């Protein structure tokens, strides 16, 4: 048995995956078994990236003052 890793987001990966699906239907020797790749947990999320005093200060300012949110997806249009 051979394991092949395919990046499903690329054009070539999509073509190879589609070909494998077609072969798995017509041939009994080909089987597709999807496998989830575990992503390593980030230490920054566990420990907290920011100082708790800083987070409290920002939350207080958001609650008490007017502010202008800047959307990062369209940053140049927001400015």
TrEMBL record:
This is Uncharacterized protein.
């Amino acid at each position: 048995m051979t394991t092949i890793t395919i990046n499903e987001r690329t054009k070539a990966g999509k073509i190879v995956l589609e070909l494998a699906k077609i072969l798995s239907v017509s041939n009994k020797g080909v089987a597709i078994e999807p496998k989830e790749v575990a992503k390593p947990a980030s230490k920054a999320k566990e420990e907290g990236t920011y100082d708790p005093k800083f987070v409290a200060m920002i939350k207080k300012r958001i609650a008490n003052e007017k502010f202008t949110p800047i959307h990062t997806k369209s940053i140049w249009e927001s400015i």
